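step: validate -> pass
step: tokenize input -> pass
step: predict -> running
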Amino acid sequence: MFRAASVCMHAEMDKAANLRRILQYLDEAAQNGAKLVVFPEQILSGYLFHTRSLDNAQFEYQYANAEAVPGGDGVRKIIDRAGKLGVYVVFGMTEQDEREPDLLYNTAVLAGPDGYIGKYRKVHLPMDELHIYTAGKAFPVFETGLGRIGLMICYDKSFPEAARSMVLDGAQILVCPTAWGIRHPERMDLETDEARLLNDLYDQVRATENMVFYISSNQVFQTKEAWYCGQSAIYSPFGAKLACTGFAEGICYAELDVAGGTIRARYLAHNGNTPIRERRPEAYQGLYRSRKEDREYEKD
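step: predict -> pass
step: emit ->
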């Protein structure tokens, strides 16, 4: 059993300012007993100015604020602080490839009490991310002292295959840093905003269908031309929302019994059925078709 924390944070287009606040929130979460602290997507560097109107300023900003992993200055300061505090941390940033510096990645970094553990490069890139970042190629699962952690980022949670593949590889906790927007900021009605509702739905379903703990951390408020809906949250393997920040900056906390929660969800919640074990992969042939094969299939 351990305490997890999900941070809801406003990102500025100012890496130094973001870094200061990341370290402050990391200190606060550790002081409140958290052993795993999750931050939003692109929280170190700041996300895109906008996602549907590409311009050179976005390229220039991302290259100027990208860092290598794990050797970048800001990355190293977060890793070092996590080590001093004895906690695990996940945070999003723009990674610059050390061998090919023209390549940038939308990356989530995982570190712990003993230092750097690993990174995940976002696989599913939406809108103008496609022009700025290079897509990752896999969904790794990391062994930690808290359990096996699988990472994905924002748009990835729209694809059930992403979460399921990590669970089949042994993930016990799914962590998803996001920069999830508000569809109608002119109305600011989060109770009915379609994007905000979709964010919550994906989080709950990914937890429920895989019967694992799920932690989502989102940006909040307006940055440049984009508005973010907050709602950083922690879900149980039953799909229950254990904690949520709402539309506000701050930290939410929940106690995670990883082994016990998973066992209860997989063997008690479904009246004896075990959906993870009772899959029939041979019947899901469509999952293995490529996009080209999909098009050929649709012609027939």
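step: describe -> Residues 4 and 214 are 10 Å apart (CA to CA).
step: cleanup -> pass
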